[in-house]
């Protein structure tokens, strides 16, 4: 970014911060790097950034069991981290995108709780966004290894939680979803997609790719070097990457649990702005 462009962006960040402070319904605290993220994700459109901020926090506050009532050290998070890898991989793709790796690694469905997983996923996003600071990628790429996923896991996903996460990631996330890649797809993948299509926008569905294994077609989208050692890459061992990000969650515990960063004052909502119920019901 040129000095002129950076100066223009800083001016917009300051303007957005002033707007934010003039709206008492918003959470009391927000870091400038997060304001920068909202602006950049909306292609430097200040009005769209304001809209995204409002939607983002309204979704969070309508569903506190997923977005607010959380603790990186509680039993639910500890359990889900033993079952489910959700790991931001180091580096960026050639087109400046981040890659996150997901995998269920324990086939025991009795231990699986999707809501705990959704809560942990949100904490992972929040942790990465604050740790990234001013480094904002051009998009998010998700790699999901389905080899450990069974119909038993799918059966434990409630429509309510799936709808909330789908809405939050599509309409309230300060990041652009670039593509989603499913590796080692099971025979029931088609049935699963028929369910997911109820919750996903057409552009998200079109960004999905399916593979029986991590083949050369997959590596046309995700550089092989960015993948963990176990997948032929150079990003490091999954156990080490997992430990790194679990520690980062713990390091950000006070931030993640501080209501002044996340809670809105419902009595001071902007007149005419959409309620979270209308946001959810329209998706």
Automatic annotation (TrEMBL):
<dbReference type="InterPro" id="IPR001251">
    <property type="entry name" value="CRAL-TRIO_dom"/>
</dbReference>
<dbReference type="GO" id="GO:0016020">
    <property type="term" value="C:membrane"/>
</dbReference>
<dbReference type="InterPro" id="IPR036273">
    <property type="entry name" value="CRAL/TRIO_N_dom_sf"/>
</dbReference>
<dbReference type="GO" id="GO:1902936">
    <property type="term" value="F:phosphatidylinositol bisphosphate binding"/>
</dbReference>
<dbReference type="InterPro" id="IPR036865">
    <property type="entry name" value="CRAL-TRIO_dom_sf"/>
</dbReference>
<dbReference type="Pfam" id="PF00650">
    <property type="entry name" value="CRAL_TRIO"/>
</dbReference>
<protein>
    <recommendedName>
        <fullName>CRAL-TRIO domain-containing protein</fullName>
    </recommendedName>
</protein>
<feature type="domain" description="CRAL-TRIO">
    <location>
        <begin position="143"/>
        <end position="239"/>
    </location>
</feature>
